[in-house]
Amino acid sequence: MDIGLEIADTFAFDILYAKILPASLSNYLEPQIGSFKNATASTSALWDTVSQHPYGQYVLKYLSPNDVKIYGVDAPLHLFEETPWTHASLLGRANMLRQSLTLFTIMTIFGWLLYLSVASLSYVFVYDKANFNHPRYLKNQISLEIKHAMSSIPVMVIFTVPWFLLELRGYSKLYWEVNESNGGYWALVYQLPCFIMFTDCWIYFIHRALHWPSIYKTYHKPHHKWIVCTPFASHAFHPFDGYAQSLPYHWYPFLFPLHKVSYLVLFTFVNFWTVMIHDGEYMSNDPIINGAACHTIHHLYFNYNYGQFTTLWDRMCGSYKEPDRELFDSKAKKDKKTWEKQAAKMDQIRTQVEGKDDFRVYEAEESLKKQT
Ligand SMILES: [Zn+2]
Ligand SMILES: [Zn+2]
């Protein structure tokens, strides 16, 4: 995320912070801060003790903006030259509060734009609008999905910011120079499947844990509101649910070396993938890939196909269900009989999972009520 932060600082946030909190303010603040420091140092030996102790030095180093690595690397490796605005604010680039605010702003905007653009493209060019007539399609479903996703994304970002702060301070194994990793250019190739396999495994078990009845009720049920998904359901989670399922993406670069560009590519790819498995178009009937057909089964029948990228962990743990054959037949998949069969089976499993009462309002039932 350091690349994103450096671009944002250089082209927008250096100027913004300089206008809101200009460095010239320090002329007014320094006398007070200075006298406070002097008083503390002269009247007590505490300051000396703290600053000489190894732990104290560590804390001071962490708090002092000048000593902290900015963007995870030392200055010579920064992407852009400094501008007149670089040091023009009281809140320096390495200030943790400033970094948190900037990261929250850019990641929320990036998350919203990525979600809206990818889901809209999928909706216009891929999604089969015949699904609107499915008996388990909800009343006003798309607007409900969008509202849910748009309000969850900023909360998920708040919890994600600490991971980015750790990356910025150089604690992760993210790197920029290709030869920094043992494998050189080869490492860029094998890091991609390693990342996918690592996160696929963890997301499977986190997703299964989210189906534990007491956790499901509060945190995962909101995502299962959508029985027949549209691409806009992809990010419509309870924020805790979305954050929990994103954790393996943040764990990986703290455990294994990962090139920064690969990380950005993978970050974008997982967002695309999340939309693709919710668009209901069953392009792949591959036995290994957990495509839209597998995830459609998960939304219809709850207890199967918890996987994200592959069917590996579902197969190994006995939760794999082969997608119904009709899903791959363009006519049969929107046949009324297929839908009625799906709805009857889904109602039965839903009652077992959620109990008798159904909190959903279905479009088909609502229009039937209006007609009678
Ligand atoms: Zn689920
Ligand atoms: Zn889903």
Automatic annotation (TrEMBL):
Subcellular location(s) per record: Membrane
A GO CC annotation given for this chain: endoplasmic reticulum lumen
Presence of keyword Membrane: yes
Major location (coarse): membrane
Regions crossing the membrane: 101-126, 146-166, 187-206, 261-278
Keyword flag Ribonucleoprotein: no
InterPro entries in alphabetical order: Fatty_acid_hydroxylase (IPR006694), Sterol_Desaturase_Related (IPR050307)
Domain of life: Eukaryota
Molecular function per GO: C-5 sterol desaturase activity; iron ion binding
Record domain Fatty acid hydroxylase: where: 194-319
Family annotation (PANTHER family): STEROL DESATURASE (PTHR11863)
Protein name: Fatty acid hydroxylase domain-containing protein
Organism (species): Kuraishia capsulata CBS 1993
